[in-house]
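Module 6 notes. Inverse folding takes a fixed backbone as the condition and produces residue identities as the prediction. Think of it as a translation problem where the source language is geometry and the target language is the twenty amino acids. Below is one complete input and output pair. Work through it position by position during the lab.
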């Protein structure tokens, strides 16, 4: 694994609908491994390796480029910014965070709120709502209005670091999924099926990119690669942990966006056991992935999500275990090589 590549992916800004810089990097990095590269009008990018079989099917892998971010919605006469969220960032962890405002030039700033000295005892026990937070750029108002416009995107500022056996930082949702997808795409030797790795847009605002990409691609099978909630921390009962950090890649059974095809779930489980890849089964009670968008493409396709367990999701300290990342790459690589063994007819049974 390359920590440097993952660190680069996490650092590149990609607010929903503004994934250009991230997409450009991916095209430069992954094109040498693809037979064909193309984009669609929405901004999804497709990396295609053609199948070697006599009647290759199309397998769509999907991991989203976009991150939870904000748009500037108001600039006060003093030069402070109020923002509109793009996706569901946890407001409890936003106060006093550093940000980048992507205006006419990239500007550092901080999320500010009313000082604790001026709050009531009741206010100090509650999370500050996002609508009451503002961004301070440390600049005169006239400079702010010259450099920042309504609609300019805002992203969080936090570097990825190694912590014990883990990586922690911002945007691991879903940069670690993109990392797993591109590493598996680079590493698999050959497939009888055509493998299309799709870096999607606008997942955080309703899996919009995956819907458009799957509609145009018309794949036969879809595999999403994303994080899932590892709630194995103090204060959460074990029955609600969902998955454990360090216990392997997670094969999703269901979430609120999709129900994984049971045959595909079993096929991935079989591959993991054959290859000695550490895995765990996942049911996510809230949340979803690009699989939900792919599943409804045209007349529908079998889908599943391969998940990387992640603590503290939708914060700037999202945390994943290195072994889980490696296991996810290994299982996805194996699936690409062995996909011909999975039958796509509804009445078939995986062997």
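Target side of the pair, the amino acids:
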């Amino acid at each position: 694994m390359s920590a440097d590549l993952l660190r680069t992916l996490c650092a590149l800004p990609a607010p929903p609908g503004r994934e250009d810089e991230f997409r450009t990097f991916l095209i430069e990095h992954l094109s040498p491994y693809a037979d064909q590269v193309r984009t669609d009008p929405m901004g999804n990018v497709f990396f295609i390796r053609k199948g070697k079989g006599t009647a290759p099917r199309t397998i769509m892998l999907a991991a989203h480029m976009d991150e939870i971010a904000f748009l500037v919605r108001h600039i006060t006469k003093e030069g402070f910014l109020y923002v509109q969220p793009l996706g569901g960032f946890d407001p409890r962890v936003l106060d006093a965070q550093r940000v980048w405002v992507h205006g006419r030039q990239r500007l550092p700033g901080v999320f500010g709120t009313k000082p604790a000295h001026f709050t009531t005892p009741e206010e100090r026990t509650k999370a500050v709502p996002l609508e009451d937070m503002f961004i301070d750029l440390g600049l005169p108002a006239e400079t702010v209005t010259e450099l920042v416009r309504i609609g300019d995107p805002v992203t969080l500022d936090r570097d990825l670091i190694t912590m014990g056996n883990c990586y922690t930082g911002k945007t691991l949702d879903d940069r670690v999924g993109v990392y797993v997808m591109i590493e598996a795409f680079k590493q698999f030797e050959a497939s009888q099926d055509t493998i299309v790795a799709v870096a999607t847009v606008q997942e955080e605002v309703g899996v919009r990119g995956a819907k458009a990409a799957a509609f145009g691609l018309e794949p036969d099978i879809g595999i999403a690669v994303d994080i899932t909630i590892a709630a194995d921390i103090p204060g959460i009962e074990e029955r609600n942990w969902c998955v454990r950090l360090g216990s392997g890649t997670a094969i999703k059974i269901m979430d609120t966006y999709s129900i994984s095809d049971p045959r595909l779930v079993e096929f991935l489980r079989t591959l993991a056991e054959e290859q000695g890849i550490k895995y765990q089964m996942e049911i996510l009670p809230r949340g979803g992935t690009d699989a939900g968008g792919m599943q409804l493409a045209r007349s529908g396709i079998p889908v599943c999500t391969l998940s990387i367990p992640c603590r503290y999701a939708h914060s700037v300290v999202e945390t994943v275990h290195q072994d889980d990342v490696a296991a996810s790459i290994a299982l996805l690589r194996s699936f690409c090589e062995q996909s011909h063994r999975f039958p796509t007819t509804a009445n078939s049974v995986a062997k």
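Reference fact for the lab report: Helices lie at 3-11, 20-30, 141-147, 172-187, 208-217, 262-275, 291-295, 322-338.
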